[in-house]
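#struct-pred
JK: can someone run the complex with serine? inputs below
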Amino acid sequence: MRAIEIRNKYLNFFKNHGHTIIPSAPLIPENDPSVLFNTAGMQPLVPYLLGAKHPLGTRLVDYQKCVRTNDIDEVGDNRHLTYFEMLGNWSLGDYFKEESIQMSFEFLTKELQIPVEKLSVTVFAGDEDCPRDELAAECWKKAGILDGHIYYYGKEDNWWIAGEEGPCGPDTEMFYDTGKEKCGLNCQPSCDCGKYVEIWNNVFMEYFKDKDGKYTKLSQKNVDTGLGLERVTMLLQGKETPFDTELFKPVMDKLQELQRIDFIESRRIVAEHLRSSMMIIADGGKPSNVDRGYVLRRLIRRMVRHINKLQINLDELSTLIDVNVESLKELYPELEDKKVEIKETILEEKNKFIKTIANGEKEFIKEMNKAKEQGKNTIDGKVAFKLYDTYGFPPEITKELANENNMEVDMNKFEELFKVHQEKSRQGSEQKFKGGLAEQNEMTISYHTATHLLNAALKIVLGPDTHQRGSNITVERMRFDFNCDHKMTDEEKKQTEDLINKWIQEGLQVTSEEMKKEEAVKSGAECMFIEKYPEVVTVYSIGTISKELCGGPHVKNTSELGKFKIKKEEASSAGIRRIKAVLEK
Ligand code: SER
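RT: done, structure tokens with the ligand placed:
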């Protein structure tokens, strides 16, 4: 059975059991800054699991695009994936254990026609937070699971929560027996020798775990299930790995055809990371140095490195993207719609990386040889840090290169240096963004706030594309550079002064809050050089008229500023004008 058929069977089966089909949410969560990507089907549904009424009812089914990056370094073996599809069905205070287990059993044995001997299940063994799940075990027996195929495990195996806090509960997992020999007398579903593969997880979400680790009962009993499409496809097709299914086979074959050196691990890494990157870009992701952008950057760069390792010309990336669009467009039509964007993004990132890689690898080899000559088998963390700091060489690649050469990297030392570096650059940017405020007194602080007002006023008078290009403050005056293609007219200058004086008279509150840089940018906060700011930034707001990333300090209320007056407006450089202004107190 092909993946698309499994997906369709799933959606239809649950539709026939009273569920409404809902669309997959984008990979990038819409209203949840706490996670980088959707990592499970339940994530976009959290408000409804907590009791909000879902507009489409109490029984839902969907397929959800997911990215999990905790296992990124494992990709290349025969099972780990960063992108995967989760089929899920939900009861929002509707049916509970019995019906959920009955439906899962029916779907697996009737729709997918898995012989019952091949199925084993696990249920929660019970602890001080929640009793042993005898009911789930009873339901499985009643449904038809064979004697001796039910196992009881504790929280580490049979309890589900996304992260540290949130809706959670005991779960019951379904395992498929691949028919391999038992690895030992005690071989059971919890063992990861590969005989048993987990295919589906039904979570009975009755509890909420708070930050302090306290469990309380939810207002409603929910069911949240997740079935891994890639795994089930692989098992039903009798394949050893997902890379042997139609989801990866075309691109794996193409890689084999193009490669000059044969590395199966590298082929898998390229195939997997390419699919993942394409899905992230199709849902709006862009490579960058922070958060999800950095995950995407890492995926693309690691893929590029393994294309190199296979000695495939990097120009073939475009062909590989074409192959993937063709083979995956039935499942994900968005890949075809966004093909141009996907190509541009991946190729541009590749070009950036080629430059970085060339320099970094050369340096790495030099350092490695040096270490070897000294009889060491560990690369110093200082070296890894230098590669990162001077050459922009990602630490995970240093680690990978070292491992390929049977060497280790002192990552503890690297982390230590990295932290010091982060702290320094944080302090540095705070310093920098005091913007010439070496002498902080009442006057310079007032000018600093007036600078924000002028920045906001010019956007109204000259147009929203007007931005700060420079600033300098002394106790006597403020100087402000901005982009503008003409000498300001007297009328424009007057309008600017009037606006600022109006805001001063209105006595607007100046407030500040700390937030993640990315959120600050999203909220529309103004800033000059976004890349120079630390991860967590301070955003200063003046009433509702101005919002800027800034290190401060500022006055508390605009009423403290006196009267604003423009003294001079002149050219500063091509396309840049300069205003000198004073506050008369
Ligand atoms: N949320 C559960 C999981 O991710 C079931 O979907 O396994």
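RT: quick notes.
The longest helix spans residues 339-373.
The two ends are 80 Å apart (CA to CA).
JK: thanks, will look after standup
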